[in-house]
Specification:
The complex is a heterodimer of chains A (151) and B (892). By secondary structure, chain A is an alpha+beta fold. Chain A contains 7 helices and 4 strands, in the order ααααβααβββα. Classes of the chains: A alpha+beta (151), B alpha/beta (892). Chain A binds chain B through residues 35, 38, 48-54, 57-60, and chain B through 161, 167-174, 181-184, 192.
Amino acid sequence: MHEKIDEIFRGFQSKEEELIPLLQRVQNVQGFISVPSMKRIAGFLRIPESKVFSVATFYAQFRFAPVGKTHVMLCRGTACHVKNAPKILEELENQLGIRSGETSGNREFSLETVACIGACSLAPCIVVNDEVKANLTPKMVKKMFRQNTPS
Amino acid sequence: MKHINILIDNIRIAAREGQTVFDAALDNGIYIPGLCHHPDLKPMGMCRLCIVEIAGRGLTTSCTAMVEEEMSVITENEEINQIRRTTAQLITANHTGECFTCKQNDRCGLQKVASYLGIEHNGDKPMRQRKEELLVDDSNPFFTLDMNKCVLCGICVRTCDELQGDNAIDYVNRGPLTIISTFNNQPLFDSACKSCGECVARCPVGALTFKGFLNPSREVRTICTYCGVGCSFYLGIRGNSIVSVRGDRNGPANKGSLCVKGRFGNGFVNDPRRLTVPLIKKNGKFEESGWEEALDLIAGKFKINKNGLFACFSSAKCTNEENYVIQKFTRAVMGTNNIDHCARLCHAPSVSGLAQSLGSGAMTNSIDEISGARTIFAIGTNTTWAHPVLALQIKKAVLGGGTLIVANPKRIDLCSHAEIFLQHKPGTDVVLMMGMMRVIVDEGLQDNLFIDERTENLAPLIESLKDFNLDYVQLVTGVDKDNIIKAARLYASQKPSSILYAMGITQHSHGTDNVLATSNLALLTGNIGKLSTGVNPLRGQNNVQGACDMGALPNMYPGYQKVADETVRNKFQKAWNARLSNKPGLTHTEIVDAIDRGEVKALYQVGENPVMSEADSGHIMQALLKLDFFVVQDIFMTRTAQYADVILPASSFAEKSGTFTNTERRVQKVRQAIAPIGQSRADWEITCEMAKRMGAEGFDYNSTEEIMTEISLLTPIYGGITGEKIENQGIQWPCPDTDHPGTPFLHGEKFQTPSGRGKFMPLRYIPSSEPPSKEFPLILTTDRSLFHFHTSTMTGRITGLNLLDSEEFILINPADADILGIGDRELVRISTRRGSLEVRIKITDVCPPGIVSMTFHFENTHTNLLTSPALDPVAKIPETKVAAARIDKINR
């Protein structure tokens, strides 16, 4: 992991204002922001570790645990909301056995809710590993994930 | 200070220039509600409660608006009131808990705001409340963080950032889930928190509250008894017990700040283990006795062990008055100059070294000048741990744009504030600093005018610099020469520059040379005799400066007047009406040797624990057994006291009056807060009783003021010290007469040397006495913990401090641990030429490869059994910082 982080640092100049771009790069490369990587970033930018954590936890885009093999994002934008997104979420949580923001114990699934994915005409929708699934009903969700439900 | 006229609610008010409207109102007795403003911190304007209307500007937060000439401010109207009420309702919506049972009840900023605005907490609730219950962090032994009571004013976060520079806490998350938390939401106990309690002291609500403190029935302002910084604080008292501590904002050395030991470490005073009655050893066991019996016994024994048979260890924990009385007793009644104290083991080289080069062995400048330095060279000082409140000044200098250079064999906490870190090998300080001087001279960065006008003996120094070319310096010190060049240039050109140092410089067999290297560096660049410059030895004990000043030294009378000087001796003979020995006495280390040889038969020891603190302490342990008569005067039963024939219970600092002199030469008043515990007595009273029993005159003082009057008559540097003069802010010596204002920095006009000039001293590299060898391949160095003091006689009684730092660990680099095949927290055997101990290791890159580090705080890990007794030839200080050592895995 050290080499990977060092490689990421190579593109930066150790300036305080690079904190967010650095966090984004680390998440892109590693899939999430780990505690050791936050410590390394703090050292590299010469800012307190608590500051790195404070900024990282402020933004919804940053994750602190690895995502599952299948990463599900549920849209909670206005259009999806009125088209029953809360029910979709309930069904997803039921089927996957995890709550929004969590990763399943076997690292198979992770689930998060996002504000809007910009596909309002397809509401309600989810994104499964970058693929949009549109016009969903709880039934469709059940079908989609049933065989994967942990017993 | 320029005054600015403003109108507040149409009333004319004279505000101070640079003041905020909020502060100007407050100064004039006008209340504006607010939660996030604190006078020690930068204006923030985030709680929005303090909004006012400023003519031409509309509504604005008064805590961020600076006063301007003829500004007109309306503090309250219907619109302001409405906005404030809504804001306050938003804040109180998520504030849970019952006021009546809250520790902050009565002092709460939110209560004040709510009552002023007429908010009823549980009344009509237009705001939606957060559903989640938030974190309550109870992990720290001294305080609790309850996020359910937090108003997110950020005073704690800003205190930890702006004032403490520790950044242990910050805002975490967003929106209604925002909390104050640590990195990765660790419990405070495991975080970067230093437990200073400064955030707790400033929290306006009940989110951060002290665990052990109670509201006192009265408060007494006095001086902390831990390190040499001399923080002024208020001890809160109920009955005869200390129940709270708070910093004194008018304290000249600390400006209200305290560290974890000063704030939370005073429980030892009322500890049930205090010595409360005199003890006499009978048939190998201590038995309680009355004062009469104990003192009569002592007087009888001391009468037959006078002159060279007698020696005394005085105490850097005792007051000036007590040290004066103890040395007077030793000299005038016992007829010997065999008196010394623990300064021998810490700053003797500062006294001997700086006396040669500058003429005075004390900190040249003041604590609050440090923040004004543009370059700080901190060598051999772990300031944030050993002098935490003084370290705040370093952090302040850095925050203000100054540059910090740290030179230390270990990557200490202070390094995180440093621009340059010179990680030199232990014992190579002379080489490092001579290398810096070589750069300065080669590049012509020296201050020629200062050298011409104020110094002497430059040529021999220049000659001796020839041995220190930078390739050689890099090789010996292990420091990259580019960094040495950078540091030298900064120190020489980014002025004013200040040198701070402590035990890392002095505790070497060439400690005096190390000290002389610091004064050479300062003289060469003219960084001395001016504000925010100087050579500043940071003294360790609360009154080690005073104990030296008072002549608890074998070759000096009070005020550094030489024993060997006939005129001086005559003055004291006359004043004390006694014949005094003209022979300088033995030093601390020499006294132990003399006891071992059977030459010194009787030892009187006040408030010290040399069995734990003396290097190679196996030596003193067997020497003490040879004494005919050993009197220990202390507040607790110590390892050393076990060897005594008589133990006398002394009063602690909280039970007596007098003065302490801090590291910046400031004589400050110590005020009695409670009555003596048990039958204990103030040290000066005990010594005076002994003297009287031996038929001596001149010991019938009625008060410590009477003693100080005698001191000031005989001690020119204390000539003007009177109780009245030091009442508020103390006085920094030299203060020759009562009209003198004291001396914040030394050597402004001339040096105290015979010629009046600062003297350069040529130096050469003398390696440490124990280089690593095949058998002992590691270097063992010693250090201090933030949470304990010295041999933990006092801090060891504090449960919370023991939790924060529970046992001794050998700090070792991962590379060394790998080679030895030992894991973190593994119990290993560490050995030096003098002994061995079983200790756990802590793997850390604080230590570079080849160097391991231990403290000497723990009675069950007797570190000083291992340390080296090699002495500096001039100062007679042992080399506690460098011992060749080996570590072995324990196979069981």
